[in-house]
Structures are given as structure tokens and as C-alpha cells.
Design goal:
single chain; 437 residues; Immunoglobulin-like; 6-stranded mixed beta sheet; globular
């Protein structure tokens, strides 16, 4: 059985970050949400560690270019199925205030997303079917927009208007509240936009039934708001009731992905740190959206954030080990089992890394490494890292080496690092754990 129910609390304690918290299991889109663990680590190829060579390479320490794609089995996190609800036929209710010039955009977005190729590629693998909406599910609020709204205010607003302004909910309903530009969303007593929270979703009980909803403050343009809405609606469909989790958290062999995400790890959260996750879809659904995490695509060498076109490239850690992490100071086990590499204090190890892509790339990509998650939590103590200077770049099938020295042991008795692959302006990332237990 997975340990997400435990990790959800302890990871936030380790990193002191705003995440999948709040009083009701709410998931936020702002920095960002387990079931039986696959004995092979969730990797459909059956590779227990993720990173075995899948095709022969020529003798030599750096391998050789390969036309088998990917040349190595990726180590890519697997979101867990905790057994909670997944919406098989979501109904999107779009709620806007009169005078909001974004109304046509948001209603068109809600009406079109369910039948789009984006939607099926982003959430179809989890059992989510086509979403529907339409004019019967457009709610126009005629009252003056409030100066501010809290989550309690949202609950009260929905409850007071069900059956009149709002259609009666079913088990498939997602109420999507687009706040007015003049309304400040208060989240945990903070201005949501100032705190970097682009939206959140949750559920609460109406007439003894749990009803999903999402809230979108107006932190940017209408286009940026639809990007945040795609994140929240996608999560609300795969994990509609956070207190009875659906698709959320990473399986135990992939604890490092939970840590890298600072505890925010639903299918939207897991892709939100990547710049190339945000793009404008093509007609007939030409809206800004965010790519969402795919359990199926990542282990096959494709981008884990879908839909994705073009060549995807990254690094596969080879010869991974079973390691333990000490979670006792945060309410967890002292010997939590996961995947990574073992390295004692003041010891140096070499980690072999395989270059892989899902098709030919326009050239070689460069590899660097940083401690922690450099996108949101850059730190520079605990590890010394260096890529083999004889092989700082490569293509599918080649190998390089990362030297790691542990100079300080933290509370987890494990340190996190990130391998960064760069080709032109595109960067892809691989988190790894180094255990000192």
C-alpha cells in the first residue's frame, strides 16, 4: 500500500511550503495533488529501478548513438491511484459575474474542452471521459462582485444558489468559479495572486453529497486564466474529492518526485514547473492550456506532460539502488523504502546516466546538475556535483557520469538533486535522491 496519506503532511513539513493543505484537503495551483505500489516501481516495462539499458551499445565508457528510441528505460514518476472517485463524464458549470469581459472566453473554454484532443490526451488514460457543458451550465451572477472572497464564501455562494442560479449538482459536476477582476481571492488569509496561487480546486458536501468545484482568481490575462483553468479542471476530474483521494501522489519508488514537487502532485501540479507545459492549442479549441502528467507516456520515453509534440529528450539513471529515507522527524517511518543511490557522508560516487530521446533530435543536449529543485528551491549545501568533463553532452544511446559527494546530511538522511538536460532553449529535468543512511 502506498504512503501518500503520510507523505502529504510530512513533505510540507520538510520544505515548509504552501501545498496540498488547507483545512479540507484543497489542492492549489500555485507552486500546484496512492493505492497499491507496483512492485516494478510503476514502470510498465518491468524495470524495477528504471534505467536499465534496453538496447546494446558499443563497448566503451560513453556508449554510442542509437537509433532505437528510447535507448534506455526512463525513471519517470508514476502517479498513484488511491481508489477515490474519478469523473467519467464531467459536467462543467461555468460561473461568471456580469460585466466580466472574459465571460465569452471562459464559457467557450468550458464548452469546448471536453471534446478537444487536448482533453483526451491529458486525462483519458485515467478513465476520464468527454466533459460536457453548454448554455444550461452557464451561470451569470448579476449582483455586484464582492471586494474579496474566501473559500468559506465560495462554499456559501454555491450552496445558496444551487437549484436557482446554479444547476443541481450530480456526482459528475464541477462548478468552475471565475472571480471578477475586482474580487480578491483570500487563500489561507493571503491574497492568492500575490502568493502565486493561480487557482485551486476542492469539494464540499451539499445535501450529503460531495461536490467538486474550482476557483480561478484573475491574476493575469484571460488567456493565462484558461491555462490555470485547464490545470484545475483536469485535477478536479482525476481527483475530485481531495479528502477521499483519487489520482494523486507518486508511488513509493518515486518519492523524489513528491519532494521535487514540494508535496503538490496531482496531474496538473506535476507539470506546472516546466515552461514548455504552457501553450496555445490549435483550432477549434484555440485556448491557452497546461500539459498534464501522463503515467503512460513517461516510461515509454515520451514527455510525461501531455499532449506533447516534437522530440522529447532526457537522462535515464542507470544502476539505481534500493535506498531508505528517514521520515521519522515528520511522522513517517525511519526506513522508508524508495529508489535512488547510496552515498555516505564525505564519500564520492559516480552515477551513470544514459541519454535518451523518443526520436532523433536536432543535435546533442548538454547535461548539468543542481542541488534540490533549482526552479523553486535553489540551495547550495550538502552535495558537490560535477558532470564528466569528457562527456558533457550527448544523444540517444550515449552515456555520461555524474560525480556526487555528500558534504552534509540533512533531516531525511538523504539529499535531492536535479539533472538538467538543455538543447537550445528547451530544458528537461530528472530528480534523484542520494541516501546517506
Amino acid at each position: 500500500m502506498s504512503s501518500w496519506s503520510l507523505r502529504a503532511g510530512l513533505i510540507l513539513g520538510v520544505f515548509a511550503a504552501i501545498g496540498c493543505g488547507g483545512t479540507s484537503g484543497v489542492d492549489i495551483d500555485g507552486g500546484g495533488t496512492d493505492g497499491a505500489v507496483d512492485p516494478d516501481g510503476g514502470n510498465p516495462t518491468g524495470d524495477a529501478g528504471g534505467g536499465d539499458v534496453t538496447t546494446p551499445v558499443e563497448a566503451g565508457p560513453y556508449g554510442a548513438p542509437s537509433t532505437t528510441y528510447p535507448a534506455f528505460t526512463p525513471y519517470m514518476g508514476q502517479l498513484s491511484n488511491n481508489g477515490g472517485a474519478v469523473l467519467t463524464a464531467p459536467v462543467i458549470v461555468t460561473i461568471t459575474w456580469d460585466g466580466d469581459t472574459g465571460r465569452p472566453t471562459f464559457e467557450g473554454f468550458g464548452d469546448g474542452i471536453g471534446a478537444s484532443s487536448y482533453w483526451s490526451a491529458a486525462v483519458g488514460e485515467y478513465g476520464v471521459g468527454a466533459a460536457t457543458s453548454g448554455s444550461a451550465n452557464h451561470a451569470h451572477v448579476t449582483s455586484t462582485p464582492p471586494a474579496q472572497m474566501s473559500d468559506t464564501d465560495i462554499h456559501n455562494f454555491i450552496s445558496a444558489n444551487v437549484g436557482s442560479l446554479l444547476p443541481q449538482p450530480t456526482s459528475q459536476t464541477i462548478y468552475v468559479v471565475y472571480l471578477s477582476k475586482s474580487t480578491t481571492l483570500l487563500f489561507q488569509n493571503q491574497n492568492a495572486c500575490q502568493a502565486g496561487i493561480g487557482g485551486y480546486h476542492d469539494s464540499f458536501s451539499i445535501n450529503s453529497s460531495e461536490v467538486a468545484y474550482a476557483v480561478l482568481p484573475r491574476c493575469g490575462s484571460d488567456s493565462q486564466t484558461t491555462g490555470a483553468a485547464s490545470h484545475e479542471i483536469g485535477e478536479a476530474a482525476t481527483d475530485p474529492h481531495p479528502n477521499a483521494p483519487g489520482i494523486v501522489g507518486f508511488d513509493d519508488p518515486y518519492l523524489v518526485f513528491d519532494l521535487w514537487q514540494r508535496g503538490n502532485d496531482e496531474n496538473g501540479d506535476a507539470c506546472e514547473f516546466f515552461k514548455d507545459s504552457y501553450y496555445v492549442e490549435s483550432q477549434p479549441f484555440a485556448y491557452e492550456v497546461q500539459r498534464l502528467w501522463s503515467n503512460q507516456a513517461g516510461p515509454l520515453g515520451h514527455s510525461p506532460c501531455q499532449p506533447y509534440t516534437g522530440a522529447y529528450f532526457n537522462m535515464a539513471p542507470l544502476q539505481m539502488q534500493d535506498i531508505t529515507v528517514d521520515l521519522s522527524q515528520n511522522g513517517g517511518p525511519a526506513n522508508f523504502k524508495t529508489k535512488g543511490y547510496a552515498c555516505a557522508l564525505n564519500q564520492t560516487i559516480q552515477i551513470p546516466l544514459g541519454f535518451y530521446s523518443d526520436m532523433a533530435t536536432t543535435g546533442a543536449w548538454t547535461v548539468t546538475a543542481a542541488q534540490s529543485n533549482p526552479l523553486v528551491n535553489p540551495i547550495n549545501n550538502g552535495l558537490t556535483l560535477s558532470i564528466d568533463t569528457a562527456k558533457p553532452s550527448g544523444v540517444n544511446g550515449e552515456i555520461t557520469y555524474l560525480s556526487v559527494t555528500v558534504t552534509q546530511v540533512g533531516a531525511l538522511k538523504a539529499e535531492m538533486l536535479t539533472v538538467i538536460s538543455t538543447l537550445g532553449t528547451t530544458k528537461h529535468y530528472l530528480p534523484l535522491l542520494i541516501s546517506s543512511q
